[in-house]
């Protein structure tokens, strides 16, 4: 058996190796694409630098002598150096590395190829250092993207690695499209136009799950919450008219397009058909039906008294009432009996407690 220390060291070594391998795999895959974007940055900045220096000359002023020498500056090594200096952010390692590695190519292009190959990106990134491909092409040999290099993914998606030496040329389709060629429509969309090379997907009517046209009569299948009517069109299902109702006893049902919701009845109702105290099916206990609505019953003013014990009073509240002992009486053994006045006894002892007791009353 290995010692724990050795085991630990081996484990650490192993995870290090795995990490490095993992890093290299993802790194090299990513690099092929990122090499091209680095190169794109460089040639874009070259073109910017070219424009900026177009208005300059050796000195910076515009004297007559400088005017005469301007033509020389235009094609000079000095101008090239000035442009090359501005190609990368100083912090971008990849960019500076690429420029250093291929500095000679800029000179070659500047002095010998510029006229014949004015597009620097094409000459440098695609044809010379071969980190990019023409638009619509991908991979080491610049193969055509799925759907062809003219309109990759038939104009309905993005080709993996498009314009770089990386990627696999496959399509990731735009929102409403799918399939290897991005010619098919996703559920809820239909092909308004379609041939072997062109496809336009348009949204179905909101009642369709799938469809062949724009109206609710063109559904292949109705969406959930919708059903075929006798004209073969998808119409809203009224869930609320179902028996039994899909809602609870103390709720009313609200039908919506494609769905429904259950809402709480007013608290004065027992069952209801809608919101508010006017839509009760029956009144909740403590409420009575008056003029089409449910109102509180004043139990205390009914002819038959509800608080029946002696020395007891009644107070009405919403939906109910309470009985409590009259002033000067207190509840004891379910009866209202006269309070024993504690003040009388304590009065002689301390005047303070007496005062506070009076105050509380
Ligand atoms: C496909 O349809 C598009 C758009 O309607 C049209 O421009 C194109 O010529 C058509 N292609 C074929 C092969 O029919």
From TrEMBL:
Domain of life: Eukaryota
Coiled-coil zones: none
Compositional bias per record (Low complexity), positions renumbered to this chain: 351-361
Compartments (UniProt record): Endoplasmic reticulum
Main location: endoplasmic reticulum
Gene Ontology MF term list: calcium ion binding
Signal peptide: 1-28
InterPro entries, alphabetized: DUF3456 (IPR021852), EGF (IPR000742), EGF-like_Ca-bd_dom (IPR001881), EGF-type_Asp/Asn_hydroxyl_site (IPR000152), EGF_Ca-bd_CS (IPR018097), Furin_repeat (IPR006212), Growth_fac_rcpt_cys_sf (IPR009030), LE_dom (IPR002049)
Gene3D superfamilies, A to Z: Laminin (2.10.25.10)
CDD domains on file: FU (cd00064)
Record-level GO cellular component terms: endoplasmic reticulum
Keyword tags: Calcium, Disulfide bond, EGF-like domain, Endoplasmic reticulum, Repeat, Signal
Residue ranges occupied by any EGF-like domain in the UniProt entry: 141-183, 296-337
Region (Disordered) residue spans: 336-361
Disulfide bonds: 173-182
PANTHER family: EGF-LIKE DOMAIN-CONTAINING PROTEIN (PTHR24039:SF58), FIBRILLIN-RELATED (PTHR24039)
Family: Belongs to the CRELD family.
Protein name: EGF-like domain-containing protein
